[in-house]
């Protein structure tokens, strides 16, 4: 994963100091491109220890289209502890608000909810029996399962270039614990292999990116298993790529470490909609020790 370290080093050397909503400045660059061949191994960072079970738990949460963070906490996954639906507790980074956000379990209409239950309204033509005229005055909600749709398309028309899943829903941003950082992904196939490209508007490269890379790598493997193909190329297109100022010492430590050989992964369930965080086997994972850092809320 030298490519990841190169991006990290570029930001440390050339990044611009920028302010943001958290109150902790970042060192940032605009635009980075990450590409990995899944045949070279599973893309789990080796320059610091990564907990794939935690990553898999969050991914299962997304696949199931859930929004109650208690489900995550019950399974020892605390990625979302500090956030909640802003309609329940408006965002703030003062201590009192932070505690209220921790205590509220509803995350709102975040990633997986959009993947599995994108909502839109449509008008329906109805007949008015009194005046015998058509009217379009009945509005109903239409529910779109984006993930199911792209899986079916991959099975029936793998060459399609429209297999896209969106998490960025402008109509519901104010109902999300966080506006999605990784806001879309696309599947591409030649009928034998599956590639996945994801787009990310905001990229916390020290704490977040390793999780994002492994999560989309895992999603790609699960999808490939589901449709009977091979996972091939994993690509990330990142916009604001940054290091928080309170992570700089940890970054320097990570950059001194030499990457180890990537592990392998086996998916033990052949249906994404039945898959759970237990349905994988990680093989031959060796890494440097964990590096701890505080998340900027």
Secondary-structure map:
Layout: H1 2-14, E1 16-18, E2 26-37, H2 52-63, H3 69-74, H4 95-103, H5 111-116, E3 118-128, E4 133-144, H6 146-156, E5 164-166, E6 182-189, E7 193-204, H7 209-227, E8 230-244, H8 248-255, E9 264-267, E10 280-283
Parallel strand pairs: 7-8
Antiparallel strand pairs: 1-2, 2-8, 3-4, 5-6, 6-7, 9-10
What does the model show?
- There is one protein chain.
- The protein is an alpha+beta fold and 297 residues long.
- It has a single domain (2-71, 145-283), classed as Thymidylate Synthase, Chain A (2-Layer Sandwich), CATH 3.30.572.10.
- It is built from 8 helices and 10 strands.
- It has helices spanning 2-14, 52-63, 69-74, 95-103, 111-116, 146-156, 209-227, 248-255; strands spanning 16-18, 26-37, 118-128, 133-144, 164-166, 182-189, 193-204, 230-244, 264-267, 280-283.
- The protein has a 6-stranded mixed β-sheet.
- The longest helix is centred in the last third of the chain and has 19 residues, at 209-227.
- The mean pLDDT is 94.
Helix content: 25-40%
Query: Helix/strand-derived class?
Result: alpha+beta
Strand order of the largest sheet: 1-2-8-7-6-5
> How would the global form be characterised?
globular
Strand content: 25-35%
| Secondary structure tally: strands | 10
CATH topology descriptor: Thymidylate Synthase, Chain A
How would a crystallographer describe the biggest sheet?
6 strands, mixed
Rg, rounded, reads 21 Å
